[in-house]
Amino acid sequence: MLILLSAAIAPGLALFSYFYLRNQMATEPRRTLFHTFIYGLLITFPILFIQYVFIEEGVISHGFFQDVLFSSTMEEFFKWFILLITIYNHGEFDDPYDGILYGASISLGFATLENVLYLLTYGLDTAFLRALLPVSSHALFGVVMGYYFGQSKFSPKKGKKTLIVLALIAPMLLHIIYNTILTFRGQWLYLIVPFMLFLWWFGLRKVKQAHIHLVRHLHEQNKI
Length: 224
Fold this sequence. Notes:
transmembrane; single chain; globular; 224 residues; protease; Peptidase_PrsW_arch/bac; mainly alpha
């Protein structure tokens, strides 16, 4: 059991540590990040419950709508909504890079518990593949979401609402594409590899851009 839990939790911790250590200009309070991670864990339960009810009641019977559109949009909406109401106006969200960390944190909280439940059901044989695909993809969806939250908070008032909407739409579309690829039986591997390479490129580009905005923000605040 201990080995299984370690295998389920380790990918999320490793990915979060990577994004946390990329921030060399400022240190975000660990307690707030931990709370955000816990929020990600907690939203797993209402998401799973809603999915179960919809499936049992036959609200969504078509496989594509159930496995791709419904699950993708609901998971990203819950993460976006919790970040919006608990973190966006938090006093410790005080620079553009913080959005990256909070987005990754809530996404990895969700992905970690989902991974624990999955490995408890299917065993350690799937641990490596899940670390490469679902856990890392959730982290990168969170990075993209957090990037736009960070841009919204520290941009002129005129563009704030548009960026908040992008914080939902961009990761939602990426998640839909990811889940759609997994429905291609037999060919999914040929599609998922280039998509994951693109997702890493896109996510790391957002990390780099957020770091540039952080440096600019600190200059404006006369902190460097």
